[in-house]
Amino acid sequence: MEVERNVREVSVAEKSRRASECADAAGEPKGTALAPAGKHARAARASGAQAAANPGVLPAAEAPRAAHRAHVDAERHHHHTHAAGSHHPGGHHLLSVEHLSVSFTLYDPAAPFFSAPRVESRVINDLSLSVHAGEILAVVGASGSGKTLLADAILGLYEPNSRVTGTIWFDGARQDAAGLQALRGHGISLVPQSVTNLDPLMRVGRQIVGNARGEERRRRTERMRELMAAYGLPPEIERLYPHELSGGMARRVLLLCALIDQPRLIVADEPTPGLDLDLAVRAVSDLRRFADEGGGVLLITHDIELALRVADRVAVFRDGAVVEETARENFDAPELLEHPFSRALWHAMPEHDFDDAPAC
Q1: Does position 132 have pLDDT exceeding 60, yes or no?
Q2: CA distance 182 to 10
């Protein structure tokens, strides 16, 4: 039996509890739950019916898309401090994730196989972070800690048995699941972590350009060739297949697949696995170039040393939550970091001789 996605609206009381700290500090609207989209639209209609019977539930389709209160560049807000270059064009963040939680309904693995009840396993818990235009925010955490689920939530990709709550704002507008789905490839693009995302049976150029036809195909082909020249890829690779590329070239092709749609925000999910240091630095330098041209980058990685080479700010991810979001410069000395786990990461870095870190 197909398990229906359990993405529900939260009550006004619960929204107030989750968003109170942010709203009180910043004077902004309370958050809402994300709603399902696409083939699960019937769940959204059910949510609307529930709202009619219960005024304490607000369907996402009716959620106001008010802009955030204007932010001052140097002020502390949304649980984070800023880098010297952090700016708020239009008075808001490019991306703001507030009180995001992601859980999954599973059969209890500890119970007998044929009588196991369903239990809810929470992987991301009350997570908040923000990305400014023109910067790279590195989300640093251990492998397998749920960082990719954060990327999926921002892109509007939800598993059928998931429950996703919280608020996501993009360019000052509050989004529901349908809005995030519409932004995927039209404002927000993904650079995936594996080159196996490239179709091995399709030439590189066709993969970058996509299925456009006519004038749109001509326009995208021109843009592809401009991007290839800008990012150091020879024009002949558009006729090659992925297995004929080097690892570094394949990574750049993945980046061009994202850039072809002229996104405002790139979500880069572990973009450097399997690369030696020189190629890894070159890969993240390409992301740095995109940010320097005014775009925003959410760089998800477990490699804190690499992240500190290019990031403007760092969000330290632990146990499904961001424990500290701070400027990269604060990693110059442990006393500049606020959270014990962040300081423990600093002490564990090789250039600090793996100093004994305080308990966290």
Answers
A1: yes
A2: 23
| Interacting residues of 72 by C-beta distance below 8 A, sequence separation 6+ | 88
Alpha-carbon 30 to chain mean position: 21
HSE, side-chain direction, 13 A CA sphere, residue 358: 10
Task: Tell me the DSSP string of 181-230.
Answer: HHHBTTTEEEE-S-GGGS-TTS-HHHHHH-S--HHHHHHHHHHHHHHHHH
Q: Which two tokens stand for residue 7?
A: 């993405």
Measured CA to CA, the distance from residue 290 to residue 134 in angstroms comes to 8
Beta bridge partners of 98: 167
What the chain holds in terms of domains, given with CATH numbers, is: 71-187+263-352 (3.40.50.300), 197-260 (no CATH)
Q: Rounded to two decimals, what is the model's pTM?
A: 0.75
With a cut of 90, say whether residue 299 has pLDDT above it: yes
Task: Please enumerate in sequence order all residues whose Cβ is within 8 A of that of 275, keeping only pairs 6 or more positions apart, or say none.
Answer: 247, 248, 251, 283
Phi, psi angles (nearest 5°) of residue 119: -130, 155
Q: Which is higher by pLDDT, 243 or 7? A: 243
Q: Any idea what the Cα angle at residue 124 is, between residues 196 and 24, rounded to 5°?
A: 130
Give the number of other Cβ atoms within 10 Å of residue 157's Cβ.
16
Beta strands 296-301; 136-140: pairing state: parallel
Beta carbons of 27 and 20 less than 8 angstroms apart: no
Nearby residues of 253 by Cβ (< 8 Å), 6 or more positions away: 198, 204, 207, 208, 233, 237, 242, 245
Establish how many alpha carbons lie within 13 A of residue 349's alpha carbon, considering only the half-sphere containing its beta carbon. 18
* Contact status, residue 132 vs residue 143, Cβ threshold 8 Å: no
Q: Phi/psi of residue 158, each to 5°?
A: -125, 135
